[in-house]
Amino acid sequence: MKRFTLSDRGFDWINTIFLLIILVLIVYPLIFVLSASISDPQAVSSGRMWLWPVDITFKGYERVFANDAIWLGYKNTIIYTFVGTAIHLFVLLPCAYALSRKELMAKKFILWFILFTMLFNGGLIPTYLVVQSLGMLDTMWAIIIPNVVGAWSILVARAFFQQSIPDQLVEASKIDGASDFYIFIRVVLPLSLPIIAVMALFHAVNLWNQYFNALIYLSDRDKYPLQLILREILVVNQMQLNDPGGSAESLVDQVKTAGLIKYAVIIVSSLPLLLVYPFVQRFFVQGVLIGSIKE
Amino acid sequence: MKGVKNDVSVPAQSKFYQVKKNFARNWQIYVFLLPAVAYFIILHYIPMYGVQIAFKNFFANLGIWGSPWIGFDHFERFFNSYYFWRLLKNTLVLSAYQLILFPLPIILALSLHEVRNRMFKKWAQTLTYAPHFISVVVVVGMIVIFLDPTTGLVNRLIVVFGGSPIDFLTSPGWFRHIFTWSGVWQTLGWGSIIYLAALSGVNPELHEAAKVDGASRLQRIFHINIPSILPTIVVLFILNIGSFMTVGFEKVLLMQNNLNAKTSDVIQTFVYQTGLLEGQYSFAAAIGLFDSAINIALLVVFNYTARKVSGNSLW
Asked: pLDDT (tens digit, 9 = 90+) per residue, A194-226?
């Protein structure tokens, strides 16, 4: 018996060390970016800054906050995320609820009709042509509507309604003379706050982080969401971030500040989600779980 | 249909009458379906109808229906083009690479499941999920910064250890590794959630019995935990196969440049380039259709195989 407890302890040690290595690998790049965003660029590029900030400066953030394109992108992203999430819920919840009701005829057909879109879709070009013919090019709707709801979300929300809204409750309300509209809004939705939170959060994160729809559907720079601005700064390297007034800086200094700005802009764009998600983590985990129960 | 059957008080009536009665009583429930059904028709089924331009010569002024049929010309042109084999190979290799790493989230879940200290477990979970919430643009931006030939962290380390700097991002040989492993960094923790949930459902009596028989922790993982979550593993594996040819091309597009195109050019980025940048709608639609046809074929084949071999499948 003693032999086993000893080897168990050894197992615990190895397992903990294994996990610690993985945690370091995952967290280190994030800490590095955070520290670099407030460190002297000289210290970062010479390797003096490797974990904690060195020679703290907020110049990067000053530049980021002084940049109109970033502010505008931020504003656009917030609008797209809120409006898009609201429409998402408006399309998703009634449909998922209806599919959970046993009175619904042709339920199997409707489910297949929705599920088939998971298996096959028209593809990039035919979808683009439809969005174009709807006159949505270069409008907010091109960002929001093409992916407003997915078959997976509908299945998940339907599973939730089936499990947690008792039939007797709906039937009792009907006997009291309530309409389906009334029951849905006054009885079902107040009982469904967890699934509403899950679905809203999933969709909001997707909208916040997506860039591709904006890339193909928007050409007016004033409508660009944050991610497209980030793409120009971080990936394409095409944005001029230099001091608008700025002949005071030498070219070398400008290159250094450009590096600093990149770190700062990563933090500014990612921090909202990274700060919020630990507090709503259980909703996200629930969302993944409800999805897995059904399938 | 079930709802109608419940009306036992009503004697046998014509089907039409029953349907009419169901509508009269429950019409509001059908109204609930309207926004979603309209969305799926307009943004999924109409594009499916539009796929026919793959077999046509699409002219915008003639519309999808009015453009002339030309059969399989676009497909032939694609199959015979210089790029075809390169695109197919890049897509398959990139997908296969990602698929080989499919077990990593399972290993993480098995490991997290063994942690007894609740605090540590919770922190480990929260920290490993974090990269999931970072946008793909930022991830690629971080890759660019870290791998920069002169100022990047990685190359500075290489220089410190006596090597010479490598321009990772313009090198075709490195593209696949960078793409795939940065993907692992981003999805490892999030991907483990579903397996952790499956593990928490394992019957504790099995472990008790195994302990009495003198099984070690490792033996119990291999003989109890892994077999217990096998159905979950199979289903997720099939789902992965179903998007085999999709390869997360939005990230490929961000990482692609002329110098690494030899390995980074995949079917989906080619569709984007020929279709939206060059305006060859019909040709690009044909390539896209080829891509999804392979996806569906793979999904069906693997689903069938999984059902025969393990008894678990999607349908």
From this structure: 889 889 988 999 999 999 999 999 999 999 999
Answer yes or no: do A44 and A157 share one domain.
no
What single string gives the DSSP state of each residue in B237-293?
Answer: HHHHHHTTTTTTHHHHHHH--TTTHHHH--HHHHHIIIIIIT--HHHHHHHHHHHHH
All residues of chain A having their beta carbon less than 8 Å from the beta carbon of residue B275 are 124-125, 128
A14: closest CA of chain B, how far (Å): 10
Yes or no: say if B303 and B284 are a contact pair by the CB < 8 Å rule: no
pTM: 0.88
Alpha-carbon distance of B198 to B208, in angstroms, equals 18
Domain-terminating residue out of A57, A76, A98 = A57
| Co-location of A19 and A113 in the same domain | no
Are A81 and A167 members of one domain? yes
User: Could you tell me the domains of chain B?
Assistant: 2-66 (no CATH), 74-310 (1.10.3720.10)
Residue numbers of the domain that contains A283: 63-295
Residues of B in contact with A91 (CB under 8 A): 35-36, 39
Q: How far apart are the first and last CA of chain A?
A: 42
d(CA A292, CA A45): 46
- As for how many domains chain A has, the answer is 2
Question: Across the interface, do B134 and A7 touch by the CB < 8 Å criterion?
Answer: no
Side-chain-side CA neighbours of B15 within 13 Å: the count stands at 2
ipTM, two decimals, is: 0.89
Q: CATH code at A134?
A: 1.10.3720.10
Residue pointed to by tokens 């679905």 = A199
Q: What is the pLDDT of residues B124-154, one digit of tens each?
A: 999 999 999 999 999 999 999 999 888 888 9
| Residues A50 and A72 both lie in one domain | no
Mean pLDDT of chain A: 87
Q: How many Cβ atoms are within 10 Å of B163's Cβ, its own excluded? A: 10
- Judging contacts by C-beta atoms under 8 Å, the chain B residues touching residue A33 are 142, 145
